[in-house]
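Q&A FORM
Asked by: J.P.
Topic: structure of Uncaracterized surface protein containing fasciclin (FAS1) repeats

PROVIDED:
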Amino acid sequence: MKSFFLTLLALASFSLVVPSYAQAQDMSDKNIVEIAAANGDFSTLVAAVKAADLATTLSGEGPFTVFAPTNDAFADLPEGLVAALLKPENKATLQKILTYHVVSGKLMAGDVVEGITTSGGNLSAATVAGSNFNVMTMDDAVKIKDGQGAVTTVTATDITGSNGVIHVIDRVLLPADVNPAALLKEKGTAMTESRVKKPTNRSQNLDNSIAKVASGNDNFETLVTALGAAGFVDMFDSPGEYTVFAPTDAAFDKLPEGTVGTLVKPENKEKLQGILAYHVVPARITATQLMAAIEKSNGYYLFNTVANQTLVASIKDGKVKITDGNGNTSTVIMTDVDADNGIIHAIDSVLMPK
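REPLIED BY: S.T.
REPLY: Here is the structure written out as tokens.
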């Protein structure tokens, strides 16, 4: 961190890279928390700081540089995420997210811009959370890329308090080791499959049913065995509209040794049915529709499964990820395997209901 500060030299102006309305403010009679509490645009941030028990810390001597998301920035998070983060059981995650917005020391806008310049256009800043984000100039504005690869814009700068400075940003920053999807698994927050348009007047002669397609694919031998043991073959060989997130044989191989053998035993049929049903959505969702739904839902699309539990779809590094009720993530590795009664997307890990 010391080397980070050594590279920063003040510039006379930040006007070339922030909006013209962003004016520096000297509020040195108040600390950072008091400044935020007095500004209606930061009410969600203040509530989060209090829920995370960080108000005392951020009211301390410091100095701190806070990249502060506005209420609109929090509102842009997936539906239900803020409420989930404010729950006591998610306090540690909330603390990690909030401290990811804080850099030790008082860095004025000019310092940041000069740091970008001396770092070759891309400044890596260490946060109080222990992880870094990258700061750069782009399209005549200062941008911050977080650990998830999302980019936020600095919209106002140099709000100076007694223990540091605030720069305003238009998006909440998320570190790489926080999985928002894991917090969005509760029933009732899901955007169900009814939001995906179902095709009409589709012929279902079932010469090419989901059951037949899976049986004819060498990658799904374990899945086909499990469907038979669960008594689900008839369902996937009958008329309907399903989307199946199908674990490959390699996905089943990732499970602890003996798991599959135990699950296919008659006495475990009900448990196996629950796991398999958790991979099925009662609507046909193509890869294009799924990615559009993710984008429309601010990066995290929740949908109900036949098991009456939710899954969360997101995109990371250009790949669709599915997060189960335990917070574990699977990657979609093959899409749009068409069948007369639905569609199959192959995944690389078995999804487990809560």
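FOLLOW-UP: Residues 292 and 352 are 25 Å apart (CA to CA).
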